[in-house]
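Run log // design_07
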C-alpha cells in the first residue's frame, strides 16, 4: 500500500492530469488566437517603443541645448563634457529611429533630424564654444539664434514621428482587442465544464494542504504589511515544510537588507530630483548673487545689512544645490594610490586655514594607503572632520585614526569629544536632508556615504574613544590590476 503522502501525491497527479487533458482541448483552439494576439501585441510594443524613442530624442535635444545655454551663461567650457554626453544620447536615439523607420517619409524625417543634429554639434564645437571662450558676444548671439532654429527643427521632426507612430498604435489596439474578445468567449465555453471538475479537485486539495498553505499565506500577509519578524512553523512534512523554512530565511534576509535598500532608494530619488532641477536652480541663484554683490558696492547702512542677509541665504541655497549635484553623481573618477595620512593632514590644514576648526584640538594618528579618487576622498574626509569639530565645540578634541585592514583595505576613523549621536537619530544619520544642526543642509553624510559606496567602501557610525561620535570610512583592498600598477 502507498503511504498517505504517496497516495495523496497519486490522487493529485491523477486529478491534475484530467484537468490538463481538458485544458489541452481548449488550448488547441486558443493557440492560433494567442499567436495572432502575440503578433499584434509585439507590433504594438514596437510602435510604443518608437513613440518613446521619439519623445526621448526631443528630451535629449533639449538637454543638449540646455548645456549649450549653460556654456553661454557661465562664459566657459565647463559644460562641454555634459554637452558631449547629451549629444551622444541624441546620436544613439537618432540611429535607433533610423533603424525603426518604415517608409520613405519616416526615413526623410530621420535624415533631417540627423542632419540638423550634426549641424548643431558643429555649431557648438566650431563656432559657439570658441566665441564664448573669446568673449565674442556678437558671434555668441548669432550662434545661439542658429542653435535655437536647429533645435526647433529637430523637435518638430521628432514630434511628427511621435504622432505618426502613435497613430499606428490605435489600429493595432483595435485588432488585438477584437481577437481577445473572440478568444474570451470561446475560453468561457471550454472552461465552464472544467470548472465543476476543478471544484472537486479544489475540495480535496483544501482538505489535504489547506492548513500549511494558510499559515504560509498568513505569514506572507504579515510580511506584506511590513512585519519582518514574521516566522512560520517548520514542522510540516514534505515540500510545504521546506517552503516554510525557505520563507523564514527569506524574511531574515529582507530584514538584514531593508535599511540599505531604503537608503539606496532615497538616494536614487534625490539623484533624479537633482539631475532634473539642480542646473535650472543654480543659474538664477548665480544671477541673484551677482546682482546682490553689485548692489552691495553702492549700498550703505541698513540696506547694506539687508543685502548681506540676501547674499548669505542665496549662498546657502547654492550649497544645497551643490550637495544635490554631488548626491546625483557620486561616482569615482580615475583612482590613484593615495597616502591617507597625507590627505588627512592636508584636510585638517585646509580647515584650520579657513578658521573652521576654531580652538578644537585635531590629531592624526596611524598611517595607511588606499586606492581612491583624491578629490572625492578629500570631500568625504573634509565633511567628517568638519562635522566632528562642530560636534566637539570650542576646546574639544577630534582624532583621526588611520589603520590598514588585514584584507588589504584601509580605514579612517574620525572621533570627537562631543555629545555623541542619540540612539533615535542613528537610523536616519545618512538620510538626505536629515540634520541635527540648526544651519546644516543634511546632505554631507548622505553624499559621503554615496561616494564611499561608489568606491566599493562604506561609512559606519558608533561611539568613539573620546566619548562622542565616531564615523569610520572603510576603503576596499586594491584590485589585481591596481596591485600591478602599484
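design_07 sequence
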Amino acid at each position: 500500500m502507498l503511504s498517505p503522502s504517496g497516495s495523496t501525491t497519486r490522487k493529485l497527479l491523477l486529478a491534475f492530469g484530467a484537468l490538463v487533458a481538458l485544458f489541452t482541448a481548449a488550448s488547441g483552439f486558443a493557440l492560433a488566437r494567442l499567436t495572432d494576439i502575440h503578433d499584434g501585441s509585439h507590433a504594438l510594443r514596437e510602435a510604443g517603443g518608437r513613440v518613446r524613442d521619439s519623445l526621448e530624442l526631443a528630451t535629449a535635444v533639449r538637454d543638449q541645448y540646455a548645456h549649450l545655454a549653460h556654456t553661454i551663461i557661465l562664459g566657459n567650457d565647463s559644460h562641454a563634457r555634459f554637452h558631449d554626453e547629451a549629444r551622444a544620447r541624441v546620436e544613439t536615439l537618432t540611429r535607433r529611429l533610423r533603424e525603426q523607420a518604415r517608409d520613405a517619409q519616416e526615413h526623410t524625417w530621420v535624415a533631417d533630424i540627423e542632419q540638423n543634429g550634426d549641424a548643431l554639434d558643429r555649431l557648438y564645437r566650431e563656432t559657439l564654444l570658441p566665441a564664448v571662450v573669446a568673449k565674442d558676444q556678437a558671434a555668441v548671439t548669432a550662434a545661439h539664434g542658429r542653435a535655437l532654429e536647429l533645435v526647433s527643427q529637430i523637435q518638430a521632426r521628432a514630434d511628427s514621428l511621435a504622432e505618426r507612430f502613435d497613430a499606428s498604435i490605435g489600429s493595432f489596439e483595435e485588432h488585438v482587442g477584437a481577437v481577445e474578445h473572440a478568444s474570451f468567449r470561446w475560453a468561457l465555453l471550454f472552461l465552464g465544464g472544467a470548472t465543476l471538475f476543478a471544484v472537486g479537485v479544489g475540495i480535496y486539495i483544501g482538505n489535504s494542504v489547506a492548513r500549511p498553505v494558510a499559515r504560509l499565506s498568513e505569514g506572507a500577509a504579515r510580511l506584506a504589511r511590513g512585519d519582518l519578524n514574521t516566522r512560520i512553523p517548520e514542522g510540516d512534512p514534505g515540500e510545504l515544510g521546506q517552503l516554510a523554512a525557505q520563507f523564514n530565511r527569506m524574511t531574515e534576509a529582507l530584514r538584514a537588507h531593508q535599511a540599505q535598500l531604503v537608503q539606496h532608494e532615497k538616494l536614487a530619488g534625490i539623484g533624479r530630483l537633482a539631475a532634473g532641477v539642480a542646473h535650472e536652480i543654480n543659474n538664477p541663484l548665480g544671477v541673484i548673487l551677482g546682482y546682490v554683490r553689485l548692489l552691495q558696492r553702492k549700498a550703505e547702512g541698513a540696506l547694506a545689512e539687508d543685502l548681506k542677509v540676501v547674499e548669505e541665504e542665496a549662498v546657502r541655497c547654492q550649497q544645497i544645490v551643490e550637495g544635490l549635484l554631488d548626491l546625483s553623481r557620486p561616482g569615482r573618477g580615475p583612482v590613484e594610490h593615495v597616502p591617507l595620512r597625507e590627505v588627512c593632514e592636508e584636510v585638517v590644514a585646509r580647515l584650520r586655514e579657513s578658521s573652521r576648526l576654531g580652538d578644537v584640538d585635531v590629531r592624526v594618528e596611524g598611517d595607511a594607503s588606499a586606492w581612491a579618487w583624491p578629490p572625492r576622498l578629500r570631500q568625504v574626509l573634509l565633511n567628517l572632520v568638519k562635522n566632528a569639530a562642530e560636534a566637539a565645540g570650542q576646546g574639544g578634541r577630534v582624532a583621526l585614526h588611520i589603520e590598514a585592514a588585514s584584507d588589504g583595505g584601509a580605514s579612517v576613523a574620525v572621533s570627537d569629544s562631543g555629545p555623541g549621536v542619540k540612539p533615535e537619530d542613528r537610523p536616519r544619520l545618512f538620510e538626505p536632508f536629515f540634520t541635527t544642526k540648526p544651519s546644516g543642509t543634511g546632505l554631507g553624510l548622505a553624499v559621503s556615504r554615496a561616494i564611499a559606496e561608489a568606491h566599493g567602501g562604506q561609512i559606519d557610525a558608533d561611539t568613539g574613544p573620546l566619548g562622542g561620535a565616531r564615523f569610520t570610512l572603510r576603503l576596499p583592498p586594491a584590485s589585481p590590476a591596481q596591485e600591478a600598477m602599484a
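The domain at 336-485 is CATH 3.30.565.10 (Heat Shock Protein 90).
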